[in-house]
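Full entry
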Amino acid sequence: MIRKILITLLLLVPLYSQAQYVRLFGKPTETALYVDLDHVWSYNLYEASRWGLGARLAIHPEILGRRATYIDGYVGYGLRDTKWKGGLGIKLPITKKSTVNVSVRRDYEKAASRSLSSYNITNISSLSAFVTRRLCDHLEAIVGYTYGGRWTLGAEGRIYMGHRLFEGGTLLYAVDGDKLPREDGAVLRLSASDKHGFTAEVILGATWPEVKPVARALAQYDKTSKRKALTTTLFLQGGLTAPGTSYTYMFDLGGTYGAPICFNHTLQTALPNEFTANLFTFVGEKVATTKPLWNFDLREVQLGSHPVPFVQLTAAWGTLWGQDGNGQLFYEWLPLQAPNMGIAEPAAGIEGLLRWGLTDWGIAAAYRLTPPQAPYARLDTRSNLTLLLTAKLIF
């Protein structure tokens, strides 16, 4: 209940904010200081609430076509782990199309993440990170280069010292006197993306003191097509790791079951960390009406209704190197389950039934479909069905 209340408080932000960055002073075309709303509040199952503050100083020089130099910094404090996190970095344009970035930070990273986008408080339906359990504590230095043309290409090297904040099915807290497993590493990340929804990355490196290779590739296609009657969104994702890769660089296919919000690009009926894979595919397609069924507003009290019906289908499959016949593997003291027989999840709902401020609220339902012989099959209808709220910002 407390978590649901905190999520609701997060969703109240749109009542008074319309962007990730809010300018405090200065001119956008010259030099200006911004507050970064992404660092005001966040939530995950390890830290509980994290409160903090982020800022960006944008400096617009008279050279290089007035491209900005950005200096970013943030701090945050987790209420459950009672630890401070923070970072400082600079993004410096060196030509009209290329940028160098350098940063240092101490923060938590999601283990086995398959996300190719960062946390963004203004994109509510993408905030599935709040159900994250398995995190790593990293003190790291990062140096990167980005070239933006027809394709955006990037190369980034990072070296870090840190600890895993989990072991088996247990979360570990230094404040409770737990011994945190050590894991340091160094990786090179190569990335590419275009303007049509394609993104890919390759990560190479190693972790230690128990030396293990890091070798994985991840690619996705995310495209929304709007037509007169219907709007369709297609999401495709696939990934592959080398045998022996550390768990922290495998792929977590766990979902958001138990959360009150319908999130994007995740399995609504799968538990957090329920599935893991070395090789996987993930598919999602959503079809919605382009226009609301009706438009109704009471501007005096910031209430309205703009319902948009939708249907969607999400499916995933994955395998673990060395798994048994049930798709299970005990690896690095973790019991892992792959969706080796597949899982599908039809869903339907109506977005925008109630507009409050700048947030559209709606309802949705998703149902879990698995082969009856799958070790992760649920036998009764009630445990396969989940009812959810939808939330979307309107600008």
